[in-house]
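Weekly sync, protein design subgroup
Attendees: M.S., D.O., the rotation student, P.L. (late)

Item 1: inverse folding check
M.S. brought a backbone from last month's batch and wanted to see whether the design step gives back something sensible before we order anything. D.O. pointed out we never logged the input encoding, so this time it goes straight into the notes. Structure tokens as presented (1041 positions):
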């Protein structure tokens, strides 16, 4: 098929090949579409329009000015046509630079993540060597400090992945399989520690294989929990005193926790009578609270056993068996005192920075553990929702797994793309039920009629052959006995002279009437008959010999029959075994097919349910248009869903020899654990690439600066003192203008951000307060009618939080529904727009500085011009990295703010909660309901006013913090002025002392080595970033005035 360019005239003259490779590839891909759409008849103007449009899509990976300069400064139409001839084909599919489309063999693509990380790895020892050299120079010690700072950027980022799900969903088994450990987390050890977050990360320590850090709650947190536990006991004091508390009641939980930590309290009465102050005074307890324990071990079994002792309420070390209705121990347990557990192990799936966080499915009575869980939820970049696969077939499972609070927070965080669903226990399956429920074709789980008949025939024939074999065996035993007796008699019989007579020998083979046949002789007694009854013609020895020969012949025949029977039995057994193996294989295949069918169905249902939840939430939260432009079909297709069998994976890996065979799985891929492991690693790629680029950009900027400082400059040798002074004055003026402009740009950014917050969020304060005030009484009525009094009181003891209940968040969600759309506009649209705009203006400011400085110098050598161009590019890249970090900081800060709305509600309701918690005795429920209702009626406005005021203040703090982050760019400006001064003004090597010249030479050699080895300018190609809506055309940029 001819290419576009080969079949028509060369593309109109457009000089653009200086574009970085990824921008060039994207340009070619879009050019192909434009060529096709207009019949290849493009004019120069259309290409310029395309270039501007493409620049908007690329979202500022290079400055506008740089982009235009590169478009207008290089090659000819012939080169472009030649490039197009090898890359643009009508049949090529458009995936864009971001989609990774293959646009031709000769296309220069952006460096892979592996290339970036390998370059980081190669640069570190060189950077350390450079730091050691720079420490010896007193010309500018900030370079050594800069090298130290850059080195810290090489640390791989951690990507936290929340693993959530109810108890019994198989989270611990899943983590064991993912990390390729049999039981790093024992599956039965989390029963009593369901409210403890467990972090599993890579162990970078080379001295030990397994390591754990167990952090205890503080004294204040434990004292507060003890107060709540005592209140729970007092609420059911009568039942506690007589030992009749329900096993799942709050009082039973309180008893378990207190007696686990204080084993001397052996009876319920002891627990009721003791005071909190007395319990807190124990010296052993004071030593633990607020402390930390570190476990280290190379043997996984020993490590798991040690870890279990801290987090399992049934761990070894309790020396007295529990009695009926209570638990007793001679040693104090410590699991109620655990705040968080961090486990470090050497697992390939964690080596790239992934950190799995096993989060509890319920809130805990301990404020410290609850705070840890909430903090992890904010920090996690991905969320894995785990559920047994038998629940995934329910069309409502997505609604259940993503509750209202989760959906609200994910909307405000724009985090729906971070969800992964994992269905566990796929090996637990009933073939018949799956076939019936999924309406599958009948599988060959039973043999056909012919096969059944053949099996029956084989079984009958085998039984018959075995019976005949047994008969032959019995006959052989008898014949063997006779042969032995006859052999003995022949050995004792005397020789008979008549045996030598010819006549006797002649008649010895004649069977006379009445004499026994050989067959009969074989079964007769071997004793010789009396001589008086012997036939005269046959002697006694002759008869024995004849009988002996007959018996041996009979034995030979029987052995032959037995051999034939054995062969027949073996053949029949083999045929029957083959039939059974075929049957087993068919059943395993049927199970495999059912597992695959159920997996596919479950994935489909979860995807559909997820999109339905997404659509419904959009409709609920965006009460007026415009709703977010969301591609629901793409969301359904791209949702990661895995159906895994941890048992099958561990069994195939040979880690569970005691377990029975897991049928239906023959390869690791069928368990989907390897796929999930690859998915886990892929979740770290974006953060790793960003970190590697940030590090290499800073290394490149440092090398460019050092190159200017160390390279002799021919320009300075030709300048007079007056010329040098004039250049320095102009450079100083240009530098001051650049810094002043940056101050205005930074102020403008802050004003625009403040304006966006005021217009979209703060202006809605009255509506949000009114909505909260309106919905509060209804929420209280719902709590009063749906919660049991002991549950409601337990929630109040936890300041509104207990197990799956979070009243503060429920109230916050009711009010914040009016804010979701505006929140997304500010932090998902306005902040990226403002950051992009600031980057464009900053690029233009750098270009103005460069132009003003270069205008003051005439006849600049090409080497100096090129070096300063590299300095400017490296500076722009460094500034872009700082801006991305500032944008990321704003978005991460926004996650904290909307969650703190619920915390503000809890602050205003703390008095109400405590009043409810103190109620006990008759009429407790009515008094609690009255207190809550009175609060909703009289204080609802004050509650939401306080929360909204706090939110607005926190938003202002966020804006100020972002301004502080932007201040770091001023250091970059100082560096670029220094570098231009070194290139255009400083006397350079000519005035350096001998020692300084020696150091500069060594630094220059190392810098050249690093530039040659690392090839940073080739590697640091700009990458595309998400398209944003631009508030201004790229031509209409000012400089911040």
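Designed sequence read out in the meeting:
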């Amino acid at each position: 098929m001819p290419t576009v360019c080969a079949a028509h005239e060369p593309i109109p003259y457009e000089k653009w090949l200086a574009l970085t490779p990824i921008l060039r590839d994207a340009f070619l891909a879009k050019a192909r579409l434009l060529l096709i759409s207009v019949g290849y008849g493009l004019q120069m103007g259309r290409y310029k329009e395309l270039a501007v449009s493409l620049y908007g899509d690329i979202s500022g990976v290079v400055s506008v000015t740089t982009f235009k300069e590169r478009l207008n400064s290089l090659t000819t139409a012939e080169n472009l046509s030649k490039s197009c001839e090898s890359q643009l084909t009508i049949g090529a599919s458009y995936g864009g630079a971001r989609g990774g489309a293959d646009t031709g063999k000769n296309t220069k693509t952006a460096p892979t993540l592996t290339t970036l990380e390998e370059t980081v790895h190669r640069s570190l020892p060189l950077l350390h060597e450079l730091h050691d050299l720079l420490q010896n120079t007193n010309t500018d010690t900030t370079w050594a400090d800069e090298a130290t700072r850059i080195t810290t950027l090489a640390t791989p980022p951690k990507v936290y992945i929340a693993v959530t799900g109810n108890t019994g969903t198989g989270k611990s088994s899943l983590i064991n399989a993912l990390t390729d450990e049999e039981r790093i987390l024992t599956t039965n050890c989390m029963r009593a520690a369901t409210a403890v977050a467990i972090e599993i990360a890579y162990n970078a320590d080379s001295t030990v294989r397994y390591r754990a850090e167990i952090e205890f709650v503080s004294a204040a947190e434990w004292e507060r929990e003890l107060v709540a536990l005592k209140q729970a006991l007092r609420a059911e004091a009568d039942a506690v005193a007589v030992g009749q508390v329900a096993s799942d009641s709050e009082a039973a939980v309180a008893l378990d926790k207190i007696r686990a930590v204080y084993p001397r309290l052996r009876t319920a009465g002891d627990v009721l009578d003791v005071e909190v102050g007395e319990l807190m005074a124990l010296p052993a307890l004071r030593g633990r609270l607020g402390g930390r324990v570190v476990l280290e071990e190379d043997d996984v079994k020993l490590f798991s056993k040690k870890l279990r002792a801290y987090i399992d309420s049934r761990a070894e070390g309790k020396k007295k068996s529990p009695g009926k209705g209570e638990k007793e121990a001679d040693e104090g347990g410590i699991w109620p005192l655990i705040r968080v557990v961090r486990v470090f192990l050497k697992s390939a799936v964690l080596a790239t920075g992934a950190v799995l966080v096993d989060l509890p499915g319920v809130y805990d009575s301990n404020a410290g553990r609850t705070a840890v869980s909430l903090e992890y939820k904010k920090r996690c970049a991905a969320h894995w929702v785990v559920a047994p696969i038998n629940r995934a077939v329910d069309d409502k499972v997505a609604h259940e797994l993503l509750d209202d609070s989760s959906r609200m927070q994910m909307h405000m965080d724009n985090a729906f793309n971070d969800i992964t669903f994992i269905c566990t226990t796929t090996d637990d399956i009933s073939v018949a039920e799956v076939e019936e429920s999924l309406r599958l074709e009948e599988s060959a789980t039973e043999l056909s009629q012919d096969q059944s008949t053949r099996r029956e025939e084989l079984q009958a024939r085998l039984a018959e052959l075995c019976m005949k074999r047994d008969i032959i065996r019995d006959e052989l035993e008898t014949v063997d006995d006779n042969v032995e007796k006859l052999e003995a008699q022949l050995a004792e019989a005397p020789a008979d002279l008549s045996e030598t007579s010819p006549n006797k020998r002649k008649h010895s083979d004649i069977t006379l009437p009445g004499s026994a046949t050989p067959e009969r002789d074989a079964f007769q007694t071997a004793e010789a008959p009396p001589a008086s009854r012997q036939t005269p013609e046959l002697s006694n020895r002759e008869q024995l010999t004849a009988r002996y020969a007959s018996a041996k012949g009979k034995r030979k025949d029987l052995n032959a029959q037995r051999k034939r029977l054995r062969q027949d039995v073996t053949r029949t057994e083999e045929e029957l075994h083959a039939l059974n193996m075929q049957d087993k294989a068919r059943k395993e295949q049927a199970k495999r097919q059912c597992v695959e069918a159920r997996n596919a169905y479950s994935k489909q249902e979860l995807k559909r349910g997820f999109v339905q939840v997404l659509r419904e939430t959009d409709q609920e939260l965006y009460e007026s248009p415009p709703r977010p432009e969301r591609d629901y079909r793409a969301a359904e297709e791209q949702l990661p869903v895995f159906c895994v069998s941890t048992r099958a994976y561990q069994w195939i890996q040979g880690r569970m020899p005691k377990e029975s065979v897991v049928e239906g799985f023959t390869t690791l891929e069928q368990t989907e654990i390897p796929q999930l492991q690859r998915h886990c690693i892929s979740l770290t790629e974006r953060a790793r690439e960003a970190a590697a680029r940030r590090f290499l950009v800073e290394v490149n900027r440092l090398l460019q600066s050092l190159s200017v400082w160390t390279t002799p400059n021919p320009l300075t040798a030709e300048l007079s003192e007056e010329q040098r002074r004039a250049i320095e004055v102009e450079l100083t003026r240009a530098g001051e203008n650049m810094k002043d402009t940056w101050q205005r740009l930074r102020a403008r950014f802050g004003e625009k951000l403040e304006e966006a917050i005021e217009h979209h969020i703060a202006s809605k304060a009255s509506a949000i307060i009114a909505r909260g005030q309106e919905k509060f009484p209804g929420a209280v009525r719902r709590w009063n009618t749906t919660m049991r009094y002991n549950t409601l009181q337990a929630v109040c003891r936890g300041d509104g939080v207990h197990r799956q209940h979070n009243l503060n968040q429920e109230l916050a969600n009711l009010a914040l529904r009016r804010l979701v759309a505006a929140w997304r506009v500010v932090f998902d649209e306005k902040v990226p727009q403002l950051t992009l705009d600031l980057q464009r203006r900053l690029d233009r400011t750098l270009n103005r500085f460069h132009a003003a400085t270069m205008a003051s110098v005439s006849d600049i050598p090409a080497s100096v011009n090129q070096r300063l161009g590299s300095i400017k590019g490296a500076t722009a890249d460094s500034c872009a990295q700082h801006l991305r970090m500032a944008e990321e900081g704003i978005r991460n800060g926004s996650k904290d703010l909307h969650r703190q709305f619920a915390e503000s509600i809890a602050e205003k309701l703390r008095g109400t909660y405590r009043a409810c918690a103190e109620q006990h005795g008759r009429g407790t429920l009515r008094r609690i309901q009255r207190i809550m209702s009175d609060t909703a009626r009289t204080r609802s406005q004050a509650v939401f006013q306080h929360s909204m005021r706090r939110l607005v203040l926190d938003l202002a703090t966020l804006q100020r913090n972002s301004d502080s982050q932007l201040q770091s760019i001023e250091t970059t400006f100082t560096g670029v002025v220094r570098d231009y001064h070194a290139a255009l003004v400083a006397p350079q090597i000519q005035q350096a002392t001998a020692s300084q010249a020696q150091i500069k030479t060594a630094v220059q050699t190392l810098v050249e080595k690093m530039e040659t080895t690392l090839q940073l300018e080739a590697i640091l190609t700009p990458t595309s970033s998400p398209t944003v809506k631009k508030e201004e055309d790229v031509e209409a940029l000012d400089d911040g005035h």
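Discussion: The two ends are 55 Å apart (CA to CA). The mean pLDDT is 77.
Action: P.L. to compare against the previous round before Friday.
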